[in-house]
Amino acid sequence: LGFSDLDYSAGFVIQHEPDVRHCEDTWYVWDGKRWKINKKAARILFQKFAREVTEAVSKVEDEDFAKKAYTKAKEGEGGGRTSSALICVAHEPEIDADQAAFDRVKMKLTCENGTIDLTTGKLESWDRKDFITHLVPTNYDPEAKCPRWERFISEVMLGRLFYDEYLQRLR
After folding, report:
1. Which candidate, 91, 45, 49, 43, places its Cα nearest to that of 73?
2. What are the b/e assignments for 104-139, b being 16+ CB within 10 Å?
3. pTM score, two decimals?
4. Does 171 have pLDDT greater than 50?
5. Bridge-partner residues for 20, per DSSP?
6. 158 C-beta neighbours (distance < 10 Å), count
7. Interval 148-167 mean pLDDT
8. CB-based contact 22:96 (threshold 8 Å)
9. Helices (H), 91-160
10. Are β-strands 20-23 and 108-111 bridged in parallel, bridged antiparallel, or unpaired?
11. Strand partners, 114
């Protein structure tokens, strides 16, 4: 690893590529459930990465090299270096994302305990490849009762059970 912005950018991509995307001046970070817009996360992750580089070079056995490398690595922790390196990171092909990639899966809904496939009603594991950005802040329970919704449907369908069941089957 060298100490230029491009070198830091390449190192950052190697370490964080699965969990960071940049799209149209916006940073997205995978939080384990969905891609969340987080303007500060990329900067924080980059600064952490730069500190890890500094720490790693401080442990090099060749003292002369370690001293020079440590000085260069410390420069990498500065705010100006962080900003310019993040510009490089944002344009790396592994990080640069197209807006059309996000929320393109229309029949999935992410909630606190997984992602619901709305075509089957099955709960799946969260998957960063779905590029979902929204989260319903509750757990999915396929056995949950919805008395108010059921009452509304019954009122709208004038109590005709056949229509109630028909609407339930519609996708």
Report:
1. 49
2. ebeebbbbeebbbeeeeeeeeebeeebbbeebeeee
3. 0.79
4. no
5. 29
6. 8
7. 78
8. yes
9. 147-156
10. unpaired
11. 111
